[in-house]
Amino acid sequence: MSEKVMMKGNEAIAEAAILAGLRHYFGYPITPQTEVAAYMAKKMPKIGGTFLQAESEIAAINMVYGVAATGKPAMTSSSSPGIALKCEGISYLAGCDLPALIVNVQRGGPGLGGIQPSQSDYYLATRGPGHGDFHVLVFAPASVQEMADLTGRAMHLAWKYRMPAMLLADGTLGQMMEPVVLPEPSNAYGEDNPWATTGTQMKRPHNIVNSLELAPETLEKNNIARFERYRKIEETEPLWEEYLMDDAEICIVSYGITARISRNAIVEARKQGIKVGMIRPITLWPFPKEPLAAAADKVRSFLCVEINMGQMKDDLELAIKCRKPVDLCYRVGGMIPTPDEVLEHIKKLAEGEE
Question: Per the confidence metrics, is the pTM higher than 0.70?
Fold first, then answer.
């Protein structure tokens, strides 16, 4: 077993990406993800990679676009307002069927908001961050270890399905330090990508990277084909964790840092005789609909715990087809619910069901 090292979440992302084969990073500093860029600035020159602090977030995502077109892994990271600026470029990546890794260490909004943790970019990430019909893979780590593990997985699946992937964390996870076992070095993307613009050497037809299609019939065909690929991803790639769900009568649904808070509340609720468990989505797209639908056959009610105004609650209600009531425990503006606050919601649900 590899030795554990103490790392910040942001640093774990950066090192895991390098270990997965990343050699091209383009970013722009913004709290609370700046350590990702700082780590890359120190490490990339030592391993023959490229680090470039772009003149803007828009420039950074377009540099990612250019490298991705050559079949090489490229990454950018930012926090919520910066990710909003990158959305046009992310849409172009999706429209060209190009893989890339986008890291979003969320802060509060809208607008510049604050620099404290948030989960308010759920809609942005899961509905397609940009114009047009498309999705990106969305991973929601709940620990520094998962920051590392899911970075490599995001890169691998981005290249497997030729689409952008987003690691959606929050400021708390980005800044906290925990022991982490770093992954072994790997090649997450492959060397021979037949779609890449690497020069033909007169041995094959030209590859053209372009998201503009003026013939409506062709654009329709492209979009339908892309969504057929998405359906396969929804069938095979959802990730989730279940906690104490065997006899649960109340199911908490939470992700990221709020799932860790909820786990503490569940432990205390169990001591008080309340049968509560949790389903933690690890992929937010594809959303783990199947285990939630199965839970709706057994539990009496659901409780969403989020650091936003209830964005995932919509997806939960869709997944269970509104068969059971869904309550919400939330804080916003950089505030985070405490285990005691979650416990109080659990107790109210339990009392209401008796």
Answer: yes
